[in-house]
Write a structure and sequence with these properties.
heterotrimer; A mainly alpha (290); B mainly alpha (311); C alpha/beta (335); A: 290 residues; mainly alpha; MetI-like fold; B: mainly alpha; 75% helix; flat; transmembrane (chain B); transmembrane helix (chain B); transport (chain B)
Amino acid sequence: MPEAPLPVAAAPPRTRRPGPPPLVVFGFCWLALMLAVALLADLISPYAYTALDLRNRLSPPIGFGGTWLHPLGTDELGRDVLARLIYSIRTSLLIAFGATIIGAVVGTTLGFLAAHFRGLVEQAVLALVDFSASLPFLILALSVLAFFGNSMVLLVCLLGLHAWERYARIARGLALSAGAQGYAAAVRQLGASPWRLYGRHVLPNIASTLIVSMTLAFPEIILLESGLSFLGLGVQPPETSLGSMVGYGREYLTRAPWILLAPAVTIVLTTLSVSLIGDWLRDRLDPTLR
Amino acid sequence: MLRFLLGRIGRAALTIAMVVTFAFVVLRLSGDPAQIIMGADAPPEAVDAFRTAWGLDQPVWVQYFHYFGAILSGDLGRSMRDGRDALVLVTERIPATLALTLPALLIKIGLGIPAGIYAALHRNSLADRIVMVVAVAGFTVPSFVLGLLLVLVFAVQLGWLPSGGQEGWRHAILPVITLGLGGAAVLARFTRSAMLEVLGQPYIRTASAKGVPWRAVVTRHALPNAAIPTVTIIGFMVGSLIAGAVVVESVFSWPGVGRLLVVAVANRDLAVVQCILLLVATTMVCANLVVDLLYGLLDPRLRSAPRRAGA
Amino acid sequence: MREAAPLLRAEGLVRRYAMRRGAFGRSVEVRAVAGVSLTVERGRTLGLVGESGCGKSTTGRLVLGMEAPDAGSVAFEGKPLPSPGSAAWRAQRARMQMVFQDPLGALDRRLPVGAQIAEPLEIHGIGGKAERAARVEALLGAVGLRADQAMRYPHELSGGQRQRAVLARALATEPALLVCDEPISALDVSIQAQVMNLLVDLQAQFGMGVLFVSHDLRAVRQVSHRVAVMYLGQIVEEGEPDAVLHDPAHPYSRALVSAIPHPGRAGQRMVLQGDPPNPADRPSGCAFHPRCPVASALCAREAPVLKPRPDGRLVACHVAQGEAAPGQGILAKAA
């Protein structure tokens, strides 16, 4: 929220600031934990996520009568919930990171193209932005999945299209104002190629705004992926993601709610953490962003 | 004003045309439409007959115009599951969806906007903090998690309400609450920031410095100006009335458009998917158009400058 | 002996913009530059002076080829300019450079100034890494900055220091032509003189031709070898700076000169009548005639041509050229 509309241009890049509030610190810690889990999944996971333990089906977690054999309990096939959770975190984060980066790259590139060429190119990009705004993303994603079938690559690319128009609008607007402001015009008349102009000057100058947008889009993508997977239309078995764990766990809502609660809590805490960090970064770096 | 109106309508039409084109392109890219629609085990003669009937043996641009013409005349194909007209199939589900989304919209507006205004006017108070925490939670808790938690508490543990199905108004309570709470959180957050931004403007400080009573400052100056950005998000919510409940309908086994869409996607029932896609896009574009026109009424400055919906 | 072609020669430059009036209005064509011809010689400075909106900055951009003129031509070292943005145009930037009004805006606030001064050398592939570093240090010295200030960011420098850094960047490739667009108007008065003196010193050292665009007649006089006065997109008078300042021939120049505060000439200020110039609504005949105190009937009918007087001064005025008797001005007559 733009609570203190500081002029961005006047803000020096390096100044000393007070540390982040406790909730944001918690966000960073949780996110670090999630990253560690995702990176070290193969090392820390007690079992393979597909390993069956038919003698211990639907066994409850510790504290609800369970044993240390399966700290978070098991599902209907005796698969360890903790192991599945660890691999689900890896899948979900991987998809969300990939999709966020794709969206940022596609959107920023299109925004720069619009700002650089103006005219017809700009109109085409703006028409695409209108098109994106006319369809709720979930519907668009579902239609594409219906037409093309499902694959991990398609899913990542598809989610990457989420919020591309936000980056495009930001990149176009900021590139245009950089041209009018002077430094871009000044570099252009030094004889710089468009690559140098946008890569070395405009991009670093708008990077903070783009990074803030990425932190705001990241939890949305996690939610979208988990929503699609929950519906059974995202990540397909035997792969598992946080959303698909909730989706399958739903069958056992009454008998074994732990199957569903563990990934649900993880989703909520992760999106909460990134949102808190994003809000904090926005207030710090770029109060002009809505 | 007429030029403004015509320009907006023209852009709306262009956007719908883009959605139709998108559906056409995706349909063509996804493989042989005859084979897909007729099914893999259809006899070759039937597939050929289908091709001729649909003009699939003609050049792509001719097909494109035929396709466009068919859609304009309301022919959206038939469901491959039971051969019924896709449009009929979809429209008969709309009332069920509206039975969830309309009450939910009332909750969103009735809860979200007052909460946001109150939080902004009492900034940094306990109430503001609570509203913000609930609002952030409402945004970060996915609707299927919230829905399942509600089921777990109110249907499984307490046994007060049914967990799914559509046999009466009691069945609608949990899905409506699930939809309404999430949207109310988004709206409260948005309203609060819009209000805070307006309250920080010089004209508010001027009005209040001139001795205008605070209540009048808020109702006459702050609220109308804060309404401008808030209208956008409400427009988006109105636009998603038809298809804004995909996940929630699945959680509660509610037989609405969203459930139909999920089943159609799972079965690759392309005619139905395409029909829903076009219907949703048209609703959304119309809602955006109305928002644009409202903008013109609320803020004369925006009549000439193009607005980009920030949804 | 005269060289065959001057450094820069612009002939009959015209630049039109479409301007929309109000939200629904029809677009109006505005001629920001309406037929400007000028010449910059090697190692000399042409001062271009006029009030804001008279098209002098647009003229600066046109002669640099940053935008293409709608009519007329620019020849640099005898050859026409390549089209803006092309590879040839980019390569030519090493030979012609610009200094901006707002040095803070013209510098990238994310890079230290030393890196920005080295940038033209990188772009045009001049020298190796060590040579560039040495060249940056030499340039910093030339513009009066310390070598350690190369590591500073633009916001860590004062306004005058920033403009020195911009000058150093512009001179990095030793251009033959420098266009300075209001280079001192964003600076404190106390700094303005320093920067102008620096510009004169640098010209002596680097030998570049300069087009000095300013609304400040005194500043123009201090740095220029010739001065051209612009009004509504046209040059109305051109001559030696001292001659123009002491004996302005065009009534508009006279008004500009009289606006300079001068202790010995109190009471003689000539105040212009009528509306300030609006390029969207150009008067008939001489563009200046509605505000001219000596306008005659001829001035409203026929536009005067810029041509030399017997003393060598170029003036575009019927009265100053003796083609019409001094009138009373249109406003005076109407009143």
